Amino acid sequence: MNLRRLTILVLIAAALALLTVFLNRPESATGQGQLLLPELAGKLNDIDRLVVTAAGNKRLATLVKGPERWIVEDADGYPANVGRIRRNLIELAEARIVETKTAKPEFYDRLGVQDVSEDSAGGIRLDI
């Protein structure tokens, strides 16, 4: 076999290998890279109440935007950290979907995202 034929065969094999890899790659996850809450950024200045709830529907805090400042309603109007509230809301508005994990509720506990009405819930819920 001469060098020219060998080169052609190697190029054909490489092209077939690339085609196989391209055709067998998984489809991108739905929403991957998109904003998690696309409408939130436009409504940040309208938010006037945040409720943080933990496992067993235990309310951790209710933050309310008063005429002069944010307060912790559950702590007799103690002043809330407005810088932290603002920073967290901006980060939430900028959050992007990295990867879809599951749509099966039976796996939510493994990811710590089961409903906070369950006593064993691992996460918290933020109502805006």
Describe this structure in words.
Helices cover 30% and strands 17% of the residues. Strands 4-3-2-1-5 form a five-stranded antiparallel β-sheet, with no helix packed on it. The longest helix has 22 residues, at 3-24. The protein is elongated, with a radius of gyration of 25 Å. The mean pLDDT is 83. The chain has one domain. By secondary structure, the chain is α+β, with helices and mostly antiparallel strands. The relative contact order is 0.17. The chain has helices at 3-24, 82-94, 108-111, and strands at residues 49-54, 58-65, 70-72, 78-79, 125-127.
Summarize the structure in short.
By secondary structure, this protein is α+β, with helices and mostly antiparallel strands. The chain has helices at 3-24, 82-94, 108-111; strands spanning 49-54, 58-65, 70-72, 78-79, 125-127.
Keywords:
5 strands; elongated; 128 residues; 17% strand; 5-stranded antiparallel β-sheet; alpha+beta
Mean pLDDT: 83
The number of domains is: 1
Rg is 25 Å
The fraction of residues assigned to DSSP E strands is 15-25%
Number of helices: 3
The description of the largest β-sheet is: 5 strands, antiparallel
The coarse silhouette is elongated
- Roughly how many Å apart are the termini? 72 Å
- State the total count of DSSP E strands: 5
Structural class: alpha+beta
Reading side by side through the largest sheet, how are the strands ordered? Answer: 4-3-2-1-5
Q: Helix fraction?
A: 25-40%
Itemize the secondary structure elements and their pairings.
Elements: H1 3-24, E1 49-54, E2 58-65, E3 70-72, E4 78-79, H2 82-94, H3 108-111, E5 125-127
Antiparallel strand pairs: 1-2, 1-5, 2-3, 3-4
